[in-house]
User: What shape does this take?
Amino acid sequence: MSHPIPSPEAELSRFSQRIDELCVALVTADPYILAAKSGINYTPIDKDTGELQLFIWNRHITINYPSFKAHDHKTGQELSLVDHAMLLYYLNHADGTPVEGRWISFSELPNGRFYNQAFQGYTGQVLARSFGNDPASFEFAAHNLAGVRQFGLGDLAYTFQALPRVSLLLVFWKGDEDFPASFQVLFDASASHYLPTDAYAILGSTLTRRLIKSAKETPDA
Assistant: This one.
């Protein structure tokens, strides 16, 4: 049986169209339980309203309760439709399962094996074409994105915090005369308790784009 291969662009469009539906699903949730399950902070304003505080890609975000409108805590700017949808998916999906600290591939996520080749195509293969056999360039880009160096994995590896309990591990292997350089995005073994598999496809694609862009930027002084 063949399975359609969704593109990152198609997934982004579908996500952004579900914001109202995702908000409705959260309206009856207890904000304190919601915060506990997702590893974020809830601050009540009065009996019926409050604010949820969390970080997405190291960006401080405030979500108003019970409207679930979200904005950048520092600038007040509303989130993009995709980032807003990602946060709502996270809040809907999080069940409080402890993060394991054990890494799995995209193919090990629910139904991930059907789309693993496509996922590797727009993440690892794109990164390999962009960075080639240049670990210094990858290291520079990872530092710019506040990546945390991990040891004992490949030739170079960094973790990136996408959401409070969602980290992505990117592993780099140097190439040689027989094999080209390669990259792979991995996820914590608890991943399915915090987002659906198609959301991880979007996060992997987002990390790929951010790293390529970051390689061209000057780090903050």
In short: Residues 8-93 form one domain. The two ends are 53 Å apart (CA to CA). Strands lie at 41-44, 50-56, 59-65, 70-72, 103-104, 148-150, 156-163, 166-173, 182-188.
